[in-house]
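Late entry, evening session. Most of the bench is empty. Finally got around to the prediction I had been postponing all week. Sequence below, unchanged from the version circulated by S.P.
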Amino acid sequence: MADIAWIRKHGKTAKGKNEYLSYLEHSTKLPPKQAILAQCYQCLGCYADGKVDCEIPDCPLYPYMPYRKGVEKVKRERSEKQIEHVRRLALLRSGAHKTMSRSK
């Protein structure tokens, strides 16, 4: 069993550390995403060599590896309806809607 104190002191701060410690300390069942992060953290020896790609494409969890190379992050675009909603919320929060309704 892994030494929890050693991981707290020497384990790199990386994705999966908190999940792995939670599993070790409480033996709780983790949701799938957290379990994958914890497994990658454990498999790579607490990222002792740094936050790098494990380069093990045969691993069934490799597609979910948090530091995998060549992963493009997709930026979501907002629709006009969402943009208008955000504008209205900003007006409501600022109190500007009160002054706008009085000036009409």
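Two things to note before I forget:
Helices lie at 4-10, 17-26, 32-43, 80-94, 96-103.
The two ends are 71 Å apart (CA to CA).
Will write this up properly tomorrow.
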